[in-house]
Each structure stands twice: as C-alpha cells, then as structure tokens.
Amino acid sequence: MPKITDVAQKAGVSVTTVSRVLNNRGYISDATRDKVYKAMKEINYQPNELARSLFRRKSNTIGLIVPKVAHPFFSELTYYLEHYAYKKQYKILLCNSNRDVSKEKEYIELLKQNQVEGIIMCSQVLEVENYLNLNLPIVSFDRALSKNIPVVTSDNFLGGKLASDLLIKKECKNLAYIYGGIGGPHHTALLATDRYQGFLEGMKTRKDELSIQTKEVNTSKIANMAEEVAEFLEKNPTIDGVFASSDIIASTIIQACHLLKKAIPNDIKIIGYDDVELSTILTPPLTTINQPLEKMSELTIELLIRQIKGEKVSFDNSLPVSLVERGTT
C-alpha cells in the first residue's frame, strides 16, 4: 500500500509539503498542489482520514444512534439526517442499537474512538450520565434526556387531539388507542407518550357519549402484531375508531381488519401517526398525523453544528403537526 513518503518521492517534494496539501494548511502554490495530486493518482494513494482528522482536530463526522434502522420511520429519518449533514460537509456514522444496553455502550466507545464531533440520539438505553460525560455536542430526537441536552420533536399532544377530533367528527363512539414501542429501558422518555394525552383531551367535551380502550402491542414482529391486534378487536367488536401511535402499528390494524373482514372505513376508522411513505401505499391509504420529518431533520443538524461551533442553542424545539386524511377515515 502506497505511503505518504512514496507520494513525496513521486512528486519531488518533501513529506511536509504533501502533508500540508492533504490538510490544506499553509501556503502551497497551485503548481505544487497539482504535482502532489497527480502523484497520488498515479500511485493510487489513499489518505488516512482518521489520521488527518486527528491532525486537524476536526473529523467532520457525526454519530447517529437509532434503535432500528429497518423501521420505516427511522429509515426515513436517517435518510434526511444524512442529506442535511452532507450539505453541511459532515458525514454520518450510523449505529443501530436495537435498544440493547451493551450494544449501545460499544457504539459510544466506537464514536469516541472515531473522534466524532457530535451525536444525534434517537435511541437511549444507557443512563443519561453516559452521554453527559462525553463532553460532546448532543441533540436528542423525540426523547427528553436532560435539560442540558437539546431535543427536537413534533407537537405530539396536538397530534393526538387532531386524531380524536376527526374520529368524533366521523361519528365514532367507541374509540381505541393502540400503541407500542421498540422496547428497552427509558421508554417513558419518549415524548410520543403525549399523543395519548392529546387524544384524551380531544374527547373531554364528549366523554359521557364516548368510550375508550387502550391496547399495548407487545411484539416487534409485524405479523405477530397483526394477530395480537385482531384478537383485541375480536374481543371488542363495538370499536369503530382507532388511533395508532405510529403508522407501522396502524398498518397492522388494517391487516387485522382484513383478517376479521371488517370494512375500512365503514365498520372501523383508523388514524396513524408519522406520515411515512408507507402510509400512502397501504390499502386503503392511511389517514395519519404528519410530523414534518424533513424539517425536523434539518433543524437537528443545524442545532448540532451550532453547538460544535460553540454557539448557544434552544433546548426545546417542537415543530407543528398536521392531519392528512386519506382512505381509512
């Protein structure tokens, strides 16, 4: 494998000159710079990015920890975060934690070793102190970790209220809230729990006329989830309106209704949350609460980079949501 000394010899310059070209430090004439790049190309020299980052004390790398990158929500989120990081000349080091304590701890060590300049937290199973002790800029996505860590979220409470308002408008009387998460410790830190509180708020003025039941799905496998939801709906046949805490859960409710031969939206109306791309290709297409994932991602990157630069940022950052009505209502 070619070394920096080989580049210097090929270009007829000193190793110091090659190093200055690679790290863009000091004055280098265009002719010298061209000679170095030409020599690198001819001998196929690949600079050691980690060594360069240590030299510059700047890696232009951001760590991103997600619970499950295969999940449609986190896959779209990862796409947008990488897009806006790249626009700011930062690269993403992706860590898929599976909400596993030991795995998350290993990834934290990996991020430290790779000299990341900041971390975006979308999954947290370790104690908050593990992150505060890193002395790195951190932004949390939809998780209240600490008053010292900025958070980006959507208006989950309003989302829940929009859902109940629509179901009541559609004359549903027996409502259900079906929810679930990816599991693991610190699940209560998820700001998504506010969706249920907003759902209840929307029912307050009509609570004597309405009934509500809740169901937590206890499996992460979608096929098993549909069976679990079908069993719940079979035991509660009068339910005519359902708010799901995510589009994925809403999709399993649609499956369950197909199994039970319940017509959507005539027999039962369904509302999801997130408005991921999946919601548009379901049959029927899913009515859902849109949280502006692209704008939230852009803001997350902006907040992190501002911290990296030593600037002050706001700690509570909530973006508005909106109702998108489709075929399930």
TrEMBL record:
CDD domains: HTH_LacI (cd01392), PBP1_Qymf-like (cd06291). Transmembrane segments: none annotated. Keywords: DNA-binding, Repressor, Transcription, Transcription regulation. Pfam families: LacI, Peripla_BP_3. This is LacI family DNA-binding transcriptional regulator. It comes from the Bacteria. It comes from Aquibacillus halophilus. Residues 2-56 form the HTH lacI-type domain. One of its GO terms (molecular function) is transcription cis-regulatory region binding.
